[in-house]
Specification:
Blueprint lengths: L22 E12 L2 H9 L7 H14 L1 H4 L8 E11 L4 E12 L4 H19 L7 E11 L6 E2 L3
Antiparallel strand pairs: 1-3, 1-4, 2-3, 4-5
Helix pairs in contact: 2-4
EC number: 4.6.1.17
Catalytic activity: (8S)-3',8-cyclo-7,8-dihydroguanosine 5'-triphosphate = cyclic pyranopterin phosphate + diphosphate
Subunit structure: Homohexamer; trimer of dimers.
Length: 158
């Protein structure tokens, strides 16, 4: 087996995507952060002392998507043409569900950017609520869909 991210000296390298065709690419990622019911209620009411939790988490997620190549070593810097993050407050399971959709036209996909965005949004929620709920759990961050490029369409079956 030949490793794509290892050079002739056995060291890490960034894969050359220069010969790849530019295509429209999209990725959708979901994740959740579980918490106490009281914490979820305070997020909904907007009474967390640090401010509007979901507004800050949304901005953090978008910023993270744009900075992915700075923190993931073999990830190419790409031009993101769109990034949207949405939240669903689930009072049955006491969690916030986070969904990120990213888009680009380029030679490599945007799933790492969407994964990073959901992770940063969840971490921001944790950071803003930790004073009242240190037991929060971030779970189930996963690629739901991707399209574009040589590998085509992927849709997670759940």
């Amino acid at each position: 087996m030949e490793f794509t991210h290892i050079n002739d000296e056995g060291r890490a390298k960034m894969v050359d995507v220069g010969a790849k065709a530019e295509t429209e690419r999209e990725a959708v990622v979901k994740g959740s952060i579980y918490m106490k019911r009281e914490t979820l209620e305070k997020i909904k009411e907007g009474t967390i002392k640090k401010g509007d939790v979901l507004a800050v988490a949304q901005v953090a997620g978008i910023m993270a998507a744009k900075s992915t190549s700075s923190i993931i070593p073999m990830c190419h810097p790409i031009f993101i043409t769109g990034c949207d993050i949405s939240f669903n407050l689930d009072f049955e399971e006491n969690k916030v569900d986070i969904t990120c959709s990213t888009k680009t036209v380029g030679k490599t996909g945007v799933e790492m950017e969407a994964l990073t965005a959901v992770s940063a949004a969840a971490l921001t929620i944790y950071d803003m609520c930790k004073a009242i709920d240190r037991g929060m759990v971030i779970k189930d961050i996963r690629l739901m869909e991707k399209s574009g490029g040589k590998s085509g369409v992927y849709i997670r079956e759940e």
